[in-house]
Amino acid sequence: MTRLAAAAIVVAALACEGASPSHSGAQTTNSTPPRTQTNSALGASRRTAITEAVARVAPAVVTVQTETVERAPADFFDQFFGRPQTERRGAGLGTGFIVRNDGVILTNQHVVAGATTISVMLRDGTTYPARKLGEDELNDLAVLKVDARDLPVAPLGNSDDVVIGEWAIAIGNPYGFVLGNTEPSVTAGVVSATGRNLTSRSEGGGVYLDMIQTDASINVGNSGGPLANASGEVIAVNSSIYSPSGGSVGLGFAIPINRARRVMDDLLEHGRVRRPYVGEKLRQVTSPNPRDALTAGVVVSQVVPESPAARAGLQPNDRIVSINGKPVRNVFQWEAERLNLRVGDRAPLVVERDGRQVTLNVVVGDVPDVTATRVTVLRQIELVTLTPTIRVDRGILATRGALVTNVADEVRREIGLEPGDVIVQVNDTPIAGAADVERAFAFYARRNLAMRLFVERRGFVYTTDYFRVNQ
Prior knowledge:
By secondary structure, the protein is α+β, with helices and mostly antiparallel strands. Helix content is 19%, strand content 35%.
């Protein structure tokens, strides 16, 4: 079990001693207080800021149960690889918390990723089927909905006010029902740090920016649960641990609730997350000393034409000093501060130019590639048409093509295609956009012809192995 860094609990053990009857037959009285008084005294001695905080938040904490159905191999490879299609089922467990009394629930995206069915169980064992209203893989957040009314709601705090060293209380369902109880469990510690950037994969996976670090134990199954302060307010969403052993070693990370609230609002109002977009390309200032590189700053290498940055007057070689009053010392800090912006915000951007500081007012835009032509080829490869903005933003050399945004695991294994690749040609057919890939696949599939892809990856052109598809 992990260390519980909580306030000490004093338990008063009261002995119940009754005197023996006297030989004279006189009755004796029992000096022990009635049981109700004893329980009241015990309760008063045990109540702490932590128990009061848990009492406010725990009723809104739920267990998220998922089921996934995977069909392997992917159906359009059946003919080529000569394998019958099989079906695999898997189950998953995580945590979430209710943020609206009509059944809106916040959790991690990785808890419900790929789920075929989702159900939510309250602390009393009541279970509801849930549907996914939206998800954001970048921020590892998802919003669920159950059809219920008058549910308990977790109070949301302000993560900008978090103080290093204050109590941090993690509530969730580690290891699900292995422990045989639907009641959420509690671990406590302190806020160890803020603004942490976690760039290696962990329980939860992914790259996490501007996280709240805590030594309150976050274990498998805690993902998606609330991290609360001593006032009983949710300050973050538990998301990951950093651990060489796979177990909690006191390095837990949680997504600040202010960012989670912004993502949730976008998903509820727009059905998608509107990505804060400025339109800059940066280069990290290098230093022989790795520690110095964390504070050496960032310099603008390119500005996307007609972007918010261009309209604000940002120029190549500007060194970014701060945005929205927050200092920017490295690329991680820039990315973290940008994640906290909202589309439409007017953000003051201070840059150093020719030895003097200049303040620019950037009106944050919506990342433009969400409106580009997007198609899914044979249900396995998600593509978006290459645009000038995407080219500059991602440093792509090709002027035309289709950017791979997502790809099934089977395709990765069999032909080597990866997210971030740009398909520029299929056999001898040039690709101008996402729809061209779909047409080319259909053309060669109807004729049962093998094909290979020409892709740009990190500035070089590669070819995949030959393959056939079956539509």
